[in-house]
Write a structure and sequence with these properties.
Layout lengths: L5 H23 L10 E7 L10 E4 L2 E12 L2 E8 L10 E6 L6 E6 L13 E2 L1 E3 L4 H26 L1 H28 L1 H33 L3 H8 L1 H22 L3 H8 L2 H21 L3 H8 L1 H30 L1 E11 L4 E13 L2 E9 L4 E9 L2 E9 L4 E10 L2 E8 L2 E10 L4 E8 L8 E9 L4 E8 L9 E11 H10 L5
Parallel strand pairs: 1-7, 2-6, 5-8
Antiparallel strand pairs: 1-4, 2-3, 3-4, 5-6, 9-10, 9-20, 10-11, 11-14, 12-13, 14-15, 15-16, 16-17, 17-18, 18-19, 19-20
Length: about 500
């Protein structure tokens, strides 16, 4: 067998080396033996200075492509990128120009987007780009900043330099030191006061926290419908009944304004005013005659001798009656009132009547005795044994009258009462306003552990001397469905009024 010569071996080695070198050149330059691999996308930048063709394209530091071409389009640099076929770019990726180190080559860094917006197709454009800083402009701005710093330092040198500047600096340092010493001395001398102030602040904050906690508990109970106020807020029926009461009062005022009923006639009838005018004219004529000295009364007023004789007679009568006046004054202070009040219960569609006698030995003390006719009757509770258990039964006697027996005392505009209210124990408060024309009353009685107390709220407005309108809400927190708004009328007479009325009745002989 013929052996290969040394020259042939060297030539064969050179051919293999050239083939390997050519293959490596194609791989490094991303040239294959066929077409280029990957897909193209574009991105537009304002400035790509320093960026070269065939530069690297990276995501998170990993190369995913190369720059295919750099061209000018509409005054901006359009960069065409060839991305590896196995890399997918989201539609909202961001491209920026970066540098390897400080003075290294520039490349394009792509920040990944979100998968929800989808992926970019070949030929697409990266719209989100981060522009690179212009180094020349930065250098110009840095030079301007340097000039400003030099001007400031020159000014500072003029102010601080020299003996005067050093003196001023020493004075500032000395004043600062003296101020710190004074502050330290003040804090040391008032250390106990400061500690006491902090302690008081802590106590005040603790008290405020307790107050807020209490308010929170109260509002929580009200929101849950607990207590009287909570029931008033949460119970929808209360507001419905109030609306019904206001509607009823509106109907009553409309009837009065239209002249219907007794009160309406008194308000709308013109004959009443004509009669009053005639009465005023007659009184004026009488006073003119008296002033002129006509008639017996005129002579008594204008004749001085008659006046002196009457004064002498009155003085003698006054001396003889001085002892009797003390007894009469005591009798006048003892007053008795008789009243009737009728209430129409809207929920019951029935009337409730009160007949009361009020005895007032003094201006601030009074007693009330009366009878009440309630359409629901008197409630009695009896206990019976059924199947070995004690059961309570409620019964109502509609024919039995209820009794009021109370004692009260008035303190200026407020009167307090206590005793029997509708045959049960209770208390009441009366508030007087508008010179006793308006009276607002709240009563609480019939306290039973098995049901809510009987609460009543109403107001009386005096239309005339003996006639008053009344409206309110009876048993408004009843747990048995007895709550009812009401309207009504009350009539009241004093004992001397009754004497006058009885003496005016003609008696046939």
């Amino acid at each position: 067998m013929r052996s290969i010569s040394t020259e042939a071996k060297v030539g064969l080695f050179v051919l293999v080396a050239l083939a390997v070198l050519a293959y490596m050149s194609f791989r490094v330059g991303e040239y294959g033996f066929g077409h280029k691999k990957g897909y193209l996308v574009t991105a537009a930048f304002d400035n790509v200075a320093g960026l070269e063709k065939d530069a690297s394209v990276r995501i998170a530091g990993v190369e995913v492509g190369r720059i295919e071409e750099i061209s000018l389009k509409n005054g901006r640099a359009q960069v065409t990128l060839r991305i590896h076929p196995d890399v997918e770019l989201e539609k909202d990726v961001q491209a920026s120009i970066k540098t390897h180190g400080i003075l290294g080559d520039k490349y394009i860094e792509i920040a990944p987007g979100t998968e929800e917006v989808g992926y970019m197709r070949p030929g697409g454009e990266i719209t989100r780009v981060e522009q690179q800083a212009d180094l020349d402009r930065l250098l110009r701005e840095l030079g301007s900043i340097t000039s400003d710093i030099m001007a400031v330092t020159a000014t500072l040198k003029d102010v601080v330099g020299g003996e005067e500047g050093q003196t001023n600096l020493k004075a500032i340092v000395s004043n600062t030191k003296e101020l710190s010493e004074n502050l330290n001395r003040v804090v040391t001398q008032n250390n106990e006061k400061i500690n006491l102030l902090v302690t008081n602040l802590n106590r005040a904050s603790g008290s405020m926290q307790k107050t807020f906690a209490s308010l929170h508990e109260i509002t929580d109970k009200i929101n849950k419908g607990q207590g009287t106020i909570g029931q008033l807020v949460e119970n929808r029926e209360i507001f419905d009944n109030l609306n019904k009461t206001l509607a009823s009062l509106n109907k009553i005022t409309e009837k009065v304004s239209q002249g219907e009923g007794t009160i309406g006639k008194l308000v709308a009838k013109d004959d009443l005013f004509e009669t009053l005018n005639r009465t005023a004219v007659s009184l004026q004529n009488i006073t003119e005659k008296i002033d002129a000295g006509e008639g017996t009364i005129g002579k008594l007023v204008n004749d001085e001798e008659t006046v002196e004789s009457l004064n002498a007679g009155l003085k003698s009568i006054d001396r003889s009656m001085s002892g009797i006046e003390r007894y009469i004054s005591r009798a006048d202070s003892f007053r008795t009132f008789f009243s009737y009040r009728g209430e129409y219960l809207m929920s019951e569609s029935n009337a409730k009547s009160y007949v009361n006698v009020r005895i007032q030995p003094r201006e601030d003390v009074f007693y009330v005795l009366g009878a009440v006719a309630d359409p629901r009757g008197r409630r009695t509770v009896t206990e019976r044994i059924a199947d070995g258990q004690t059961v309570k039964f409620e019964e109502y006697d509609k024919g039995e009258l209820l009794i009021d027996a109370q004692i009260g005392k008035r303190f200026r505009d407020i009167a307090m009462r206590g005793g029997f209210f509708e045959s049960t124990g209770g208390v009441g408060v009366d508030y007087f306003a508008l010179n006793d024309t308006l009276k607002i009353t709240f009563e609480a009685f019939d306290f039973d552990k098995d049901r809510n107390a009987h609460l009543k709220f109403y107001a009386d407005y005096r239309l005339f001397r003996h006639v008053s309108l009344t409206a309110g809400w009876d048993d408004f927190i009843s747990s048995e469905g007895n709550e009812s708004p009401f309207v009504g009328l009350s009539i009241s007479f004093e004992d001397k009024d009754l004497k006058y009325l009885l003496s005016s009745i003609p008696i046939s002989r």
